[in-house]
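Example 3.2
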Amino acid sequence: MSGTAASAAELLAPSQLPARPEGELKERLAKVRYVFTDLDGTMLAPGSTVMADSAGNPSSALPEVLCELKRAGIEVIPVSGRNRSMLHEDCRILGLNAYIGEMGGLIVTDVRANRWSYYTAEMHYDPASGITPHQVIENTGICHKILERWQGLIEYHNDMGPGYKHREVTVTFRGDVPDSELEAMIDASGLALELADNGYVNRISKPTTLAIPDDGTRCRSLHIIPRGLTKGKGVRRCMEIMGVKPEEGLAIGDAPSDFLMGRKVNNFILMENGLPHPGVQKALDHEMRHHPGRTLLSRGATIDGWVASMRALLAAKE
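Structure, written as tokens:
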């Protein structure tokens, strides 16, 4: 790499979040009262556990820092593709009281008071219909047509909690079919929908109807979602409901979709383990060119980096 190229690369690299922020950064982080966080690859250790560090060793660091955040008046709000049943249990066990599920489509602002709403972006949905947005999608017949068209190549994804029927806003499939044909079928559904590719599935859990290799090379997680639905828009809607100002929010995550959360608040922490992802590099390049001060890099990967980031946030409030 030439000296000029190296300088450009260094210029676009985010600064690592210091253990004890100072100056303008300290002042900025001192205003944070809400943390919008991704879960897998971010807040949780590998295997989606809380009682371990990133290497899998037993650790109580996450529960301890969650207690410190609560004492400091900072609310942690998970933002995930998971459904209500999964996130409700996550929040119950961790002592959290709000979450955003199904990639922004389910917004629960108060678990204890059961305050929640659906968000369907560009897809029309009438809450008085008596059915969920998920059922609205299924009632078009699009799901049946997809399963009939590609028997043995696609099926409902059963890895998200008790099963797909517990989803309320989105539809999740797994398998391997041509994107162009699938998108054409979705476009012909009559609803404002789009396809979201959530990457490869490492293991095809049973039961399954798929006749494709169980080696993580061909099976993808494919979501049919309301057009325009993103984690970022879900965060924005949650902030509107809860009266959260951008300067009061911090977002943290490891994937390209998590940058969309960061654009709704004044602070974004990228997990160190997200750097190798090509999509992250593209999103990071955009952020560093247009909003260079908003993105910081965690000190450590997954749960270790999350805990270190939260301790830095707490230090900024001292």
